Amino acid sequence: MLDLELLKTLVCVVDEGSFTRAAHRVHRTQSTVSQQVRKLEQSVGKTLLWRDRTGGNVSATEDGELMLAYARRLLAIAGEAEHVLSAPRAAQVLRLGVPEDFDVARLTALLAGFAANHADVRLETLSGMSADLRAGLASGDLDLALVKREPGDGPCLGAWPERLVWVGGRQWRPDAAVVPLVLFPQGCIYRKRMIYALESAGRPWHVAYHSHSLAGVQAAVAAGLGVSLLPAFARLETHAELGATDGFAAVPLTELAIIGGQHALSPIEQDLLAALKQAIGGDDKALPAGAGDQPRSPST
Fold this sequence. Notes:
Blueprint: H1 4-16, H2 19-26, H3 30-44, E1 49-51, E2 58-60, H4 62-86, E3 92-99, H5 104-117, E4 121-128, H6 130-139, E5 144-149, E6 158-162, E7 164-169, E8 179-183, H7 189-200, E9 205-210, H8 214-222, E10 228-231, E11 239-242, E12 254-260, H9 267-281
Parallel strand pairs: 3-4, 3-5, 8-9
Antiparallel strand pairs: 1-2, 5-12, 6-12, 7-10, 7-11
Helix pairs in contact: 1-2, 1-3, 1-4, 2-3, 5-9
């Protein structure tokens, strides 16, 4: 194994053309420098330098020139490795889970603002059902998550009531005998609210359309495939809001909550939490915390 220190001494002696000048450059005695070169020669079994009798002038032998080329390359690689390892670590990764139906405008504004203020952080965002996001937190695959849930359903880092509205297409007929529903998949709190409300009122219903995405549900409603229950911000201009006169009574509030894992939040995670709170708190359609005395439907 070649000793980088000995290679460095060899390069220095050749560059200076003298043991004496090399010794001054590396702040060592001339005898120490000479011993290091001799040790390197012994390790490779070759004479690397031609010396005059005084040691004042030296030059590389043919083997020395070959060794010198390798020495410079090895020292450069070693310097590069040292630089890379001493440089700041790669950007910290934060993994945020958001509901499929979270307001895209607020989300993109949040991500852009956070990224601009934290160039050393890479924010990875995963959208999905709230049940899946909770599982991601439990497994350590997520650091923070926004979830839709029953109000007060467990500890959280922040929570906001969410008003839901019944929506149908502009051509919706209020006298429909069986209500066609446009639904999110099993486990969605809006789906539970819809079915519970209709069955409590004794109204028959059937599944008209399924979609995992908010855009799919919105499009199906606008096309007149059925009615659905959405957060107020998600009602489009092409939707008609349905109320008691249409046979759809108001439903209890749901809750948008920020939850974290079991670990204490790092400073960067605290900054992300503050950004989330600012983004969500700016929703002009959200009700103030604690608003509304509507009864809760049973948790399922």
